[in-house]
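DATA CLASS: polypeptide
GOAL: derive structure tokens

***
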Amino acid sequence: MDPAGKKFDQRLAEKFAKLERLVIIAGRYEGFDARIYKLADERVSIGDFVLAGGELPALAIVEATARLLPGVLGNEASLAEETFGRTPQRALPIGRQSATNKHADDKETIKEYPQYTRPENFYGWKVPAVLLSGDHKKIADWRKKNS
């Protein structure tokens, strides 16, 4: 972990998930002896800010990477439509391809639509009626429009 390192993102999580093993070295307070860099393949940062230690950034990397490993998520289909997923690797409903952004590696990425859970009415904030309609075409259209 290094505040001056390469910015961690979904592409890096995907790269790390393909590795046989991943060792993260996290410093505390002023960091660690500079000679430790000789043991590292990459220096990684989670953003332009400073924390007291590298434990939380390391945990964020472990979380983002581990969820991409087979068997970690309860339902592998959960990866099919999610923010920062790549369109070439993900099976998207018809029409979702337009809800994309270019990423630094010039691959298209998805911005996912808003999520809603129960209860249907939470302090007066209601789940959009179309999502409760059961009409899969209208729901797909709403998701596309709101991505």
Observations:
- The domain at 6-66 is CATH 3.40.1280.10 (Alpha/beta knot).
- The beta strands are 6-7, 44-45, 100-102, 108-110, 121-122, 125-126.
